[in-house]
Amino acid sequence: MLPTREQAEALLLEAAQCNPGQWDDHSRTAAHCAGAIAAACGLDAEKAYIVGLLHDIGRKFGKRHLGHVSDGYSYMMSLGYDEAARICLTHSFSSLSLDDYIGKFDTTPDELELIQNALSGIEMDEYDKLIQLCDALAGAEGVVDMDARMEDIRRRYGSYPPEKRAANFALKEHFEALAGRDIYDIVDKEHYHP
Length: 194
Fold this sequence. Notes:
single chain, mainly alpha, two-stranded antiparallel ribbon, 2 strands
């Protein structure tokens, strides 16, 4: 289940008031990209927009690294939004393994177990892949070059595994093949700003 677009916007607005920062504009950019790419690929653009908007909703609960994944997953599940909860979980793991995570492991043992158990039951679908791609395209200021976004993450966290970099570019190629167009054109890289 998913909230409506209006409900998702309200959830993000409330979350941003709880934990101000640039993450909400990053989420708006991810949503914009997800909706545009989904439409170009024949996917459900409304669903893509909503899950893109809510992928980082766990940041509502404070400045956490891996903890935002379990926070977002648990929060969306508590509201009955299992499709959004899934994306809160999968957006950080290109191979559905904790080895993919870039950042601090700031979870409790119970939260870590929750993430591992939930990941083990998932087979990636187009929406999981789409939000992973859009997370790599979305800056707080608008759509950014993927190389620049990954370099920014490397600078902030100290590393960016080559396997994850390769996975992001494979996703870009996958969706460009589905759409028959360049991703940056689809998302209006030069003009979109949240």
